[in-house]
Amino acid sequence: MFDSDGLVEEIRSRNDIVSVIGSYIRLQKKGSNYMGLCPFHNEKTPSFSVSGPKQMYHCFGCGVGGDVFDFVMKYESFTFPEAMKALAERAGIKLPEQELSEETKRQSDLKGRLLEINKQAAKYFYYQLVSARGKTAYEYLLRRGLSEDTVKQFGLGFSNPYSDDLYKYLKGLGYGDDLLKQSGLVTIDEQRGGMDKFWNRVMFPIMDINHRVVGFGGRVMGDAQPKYLNSPETLLFDKSRNLYGLNFARASRKQYLLICEGYMDVIALHQAGFTNAVAALGTAFTAFHAKLIKRYVNEVVLTFDSDGAGTQAALRAIPILKEAGLTVKVINMKPYKDPDEFIKALGAEEYQKRIDGAKNSFFFEIDVLQTKYEMSDPEQKTRFFHETARKLVTFGEELERNFYIDAVAGTYQIDVEQLRRLVNRLGNQATLGMGEQKEVKSGSTKVREAPEGGIGTSQKLMLTWLTEDPTLFDKIKGVIGPEDFTEGIYHEVAALVFDQYEKEHTVIPTKIIDRFQDEEEKSEVTALFFAEIRGEMDGAARDKALSDTVRRLKEHSLDKQSQKAVEVNDMELLTRIFQEQKELKNKRFTFDS
Fold it and tell me: Exposed, middle or buried: residue 523 (CB in 10 Å: 0-12, 13-18, 19+)?
């Protein structure tokens, strides 16, 4: 939308990140940075660091990070253009008029008109609910335990038992048939004229994260079918990409979301104080739902119906949610069917206990699997453990896999070593003939391998020091270059840092971050400029730390180069590397000013 680098940089420079973030959360100066409680995950000890000189933030707890645009986008759930507008307005900068194509203008105008129609329809449905016509529907909601305040908060309404009631109202406001048809609220028939999509139903406005009505759900008053009906797909509404209640839940700032099956469960939970509840809109969970949730939390708790259909819905949702990188737990609501029924019977305090005791999704899956086998039959018991072992194989981390093996063996009373051998055997069969993968996927985002252990820390420290003190570039010239940083994101960032210094004789970390589009990558890059140095260091201590870091980086780099030289049998290169290694042992580095 705004493609001027100069404009982006002007807005960024006119919005001091400490001031902007300080308007959202309480910050306290600690050394050269400011610290506060992270707004993106629950914590009691501040781990959220904001750097004024670097104009960046980084949380050492959950790993999020970026510049002022990234913070506003994540906190407010804004798109980049929306964050640009908000920050430009804050700084008193007038944005240029956007040049739009005729088609883009038409689509934008159409969306605006459809939002107007939905807003008018929501107002009309609410008016009908609180009028004499809606008495039966209003009493139904009160019988379901909803308060008047809750009805208002969620904008609940009623569609009259007449097939063209809303159509006539909207026509009276001046909206044409073609526009009304595109809203999904009416159908146009040449013989019968305009017909309402919803009638004789309690109405649930469906809002996007900015509280704009994008669609509706309706629960029939009577025995008609279907019992629940949603708006059709429109320019505004795609049920596979929207979650009911997310506009409220995203502001709860809790570290997890409660995922329900229906409107009434969400509303009942919010009324009971569980303001982090959401639900899919009459459809199975999709990858889009999971990605949307991942923008706000890292953990979800499934609170689906306790019947067979609810169990199957949970089993379908679990792998989708886990693929997006979410931790998943499952609540046991028995003997009650759903959250609404549970809370009415036992109250919010007992429901919180069920949340606290929610089962790890893997053990939930194993418990459900176990019900398919007769455990007193040796043959069926063996088949059960084979199925369980196949699930255990999917854990790529050996330590985590062993923890689960121990837990399963203890729960189902099987010898742990026998189970471990079975898992290893099945794992070997599954990987037979497969080469090592250099990249793994988490959802649709590639996770690049990063250096591990001390060398990763050293590279991170060096990048942090270079951005804080650009005079170091001249001092390490001829010794350390971008080629000495390990492959992957460390090398990519180092190349950008050295290139920027060569061209501009300074390093602006925010410009480096701008080169990365993915949110996880941005956070990872930001962390490279926030290496923690334990304790206070005087000049001599700093000089020694820098010297040790440079030596460690170069030694590691030369080791990697020698391995490659051996692989390609390049004896000339190998001789040169050996000479460099010998010289490095006797070399002294000094970085005192």
Answer: buried
Average pLDDT, the chain: 83
SS3 percent helix, strand, coil of the chain, rounded to 5, is 50, 15, 35
- CB neighbour list of residue 558: distance below 8 Å, 6 or more residues apart: 577, 580, 581, 584
Token pair 């390609």 is found at 568
The set of residues, in sequence order, having a beta carbon less than 8 Å from that of 225 and lying 6+ positions away, is none
Q: Domains in the chain, ordered, with CATH?
A: 5-91 (3.90.580.10), 112-230 (3.90.980.10), 243-360 (3.40.1360.10), 372-431 (no CATH), 449-586 (1.10.860)
* Residues 233-285: tens digit of each pLDDT: 998 898 888 899 999 998 887 889 999 998 999 999 999 999 999 998 877 78
Per-residue model confidence as pLDDT tens digits over 430-482: 544 333 333 333 333 333 444 444 677 888 888 888 888 888 888 888 788 88
Q: Compute the residue count for the chain.
A: 593
Q: Containing H/E element for 65? A: strand 65-66
pLDDT at 219 over 60: yes
> What is the C-alpha to C-alpha distance for residues 6 and 514, in angstroms, rounded to an integer?
13
> Cβ(81)–Cβ(2) under 8 Å?
yes
In sign, the C-alpha dihedral spanning 185, 188, 191, 193 is: positive
Instruction: Output phi, psi for 10, to 5 deg.
Output: -65, -45
Give the lowest-confidence range in 415-419, 507-511, 568-572: 568-572
How far apart, in whole angstroms, are the C-alpha atoms of residue 22 and residue 215?
36
In one-letter notation, the amino acid at residue 29 is K
Residue 139 in this model has a pLDDT that exceeds 60: yes
Question: What was the pLDDT predicted at 591?
Answer: 60
Query: How far, in Å, CA of 276 to CA of 303, rounded?
Result: 12
Q: Nearest-5° angle of CA 45, CA 47, CA 53?
A: 140
Nearest to 184 by CA among 249, 245, 229: 229
Q: What CA–CA distances, in Å, run from 505 to 114, 498, 500, 535, 591?
A: 52, 9, 7, 30, 19
Dihedral sign for Cα 313, 332, 366, 402, please.
positive
Q: Is 223 helix (H, G, I), strand (E, B) or coil?
A: coil
pLDDT band at 287 (very low <50, low <70, confident <90, very high): confident
